[in-house]
Amino acid sequence: MWSGPPQPDQGLPPPLVAVPVPWKNTDPCQGHRESPGALVETSAGEEAQGQEGPAATQLDVLRLRSSSMEIREKGSEFLKEELHRAQKELKLKDEECERLSKVREQLEQELEELTASLFEEAHKMVREANMKQAASEKQLKEARGKIDMLQAEVTALKTLVITSTPASPNRELHPQLLSPTKAGPRKGHSRHKSTSSALCPAVCPAAGHTLTPDREGKEVDTILFAEFQAWREAPTLDKTCPFLERVHREDVGPCLDFTMQELSTLVRAAVEDNTLTIEPVASQTLPAVKVAEVECSSTNTCALSGLTRTCRHRIRLGDSESHYYISPSSRARITAVCNFFTYIRYIQQGLVRQNAEPMFWEIMRLRKEMSLAKLGFFPQEA
What we know:
Among the domains are: 60-164; 222-282 and 298-375, no CATH class. It is built from seven helices and five strands. The chain has helices at residues 36-157, 222-233, 242-255, 261-272, 291-296, 328-348, 356-375, and strands spanning 203-204, 209-210, 276-280, 313-317, 324-326. The strands form two sheets. Strands 3-4-5 form a three-stranded antiparallel β-sheet. The chain has a two-stranded antiparallel ribbon with strand order 1-2. Helix 3 (242-255) packs parallel to helix 7 and helix 6 runs antiparallel to helix 7 (356-375). The model is unreliable at 17-41, 162-168, 179-214 and 284-295 (pLDDT under 50). Keywords: Coiled coil, Guanine-nucleotide releasing factor, Phosphoprotein, Protein transport, Transport.
């Protein structure tokens, strides 16, 4: 009967165990093995080396740890220094950027201010140029009007200025120096500005109609003559002097006192400033009247008196483009005042070279014409 594998203690030999035998490295020529004594020494040395290995390894590990810590510390310090340096550089860059940003803002502000000032200066120059151009055009227009007026006045002065000496005046050229019985029809003072026509009521050359001269006697009023003499010493257009103050109060004011008070005031100021223009209205141009002119008045209604009259003349005040149609009676009153102011301007400018008495009687005649025009007497037109 089988009872399992044979046991060692049953007389069988023990199994073979391989025992490593250390060999000593020798020259290839020496192919014999080490001696047993050498084997023993070698095994002892290995045991001693096996005991010293862990300590050496532990020492190496400690050395490695210490060196790695030193390297880590040095690396950390180096990184800290680099970080600190980078922070400084970044701070400097930030400061530089901030400074440049401030410079840019300042430059932008200066540029805006400069642009605004340049635009303002340009607008100012354009505005001044426009104002100068308008003033130049106005002066040119006024100069042309004055040239026209002076040309007409030069023609009128041919009958007013004494060409001979004051001691022996030329009475043929100046019929106002003749006696009332010898004085025939004579021309008055014509005042023109551009296309204006203001004729003395004594004669109407355009109509070809003259008034019969008066045959009354004359006597010098000492008070009026004294006031005229005082004014003649220093001629002026100031209304505060006694001579002109009396004429304005007694003649000019009543003669230019029309029903339309507002327009009457404007007309009086224009006559005193010599800026009133009287224009004849041509019949062929009546249908083409501007709207602005129709609004001021019509050819059938006088703008000053408000009465229904046939208006053959119109007036313009200063540089205004508006026209006002006036009746023959209103025109006669305006021209009478204009003739008076024209004559005293001639005296003020030294264009009338007469003695005091003839000049005084000429002024009295002009005052008489203003009074007659105020009362409604005026020459009829053809």
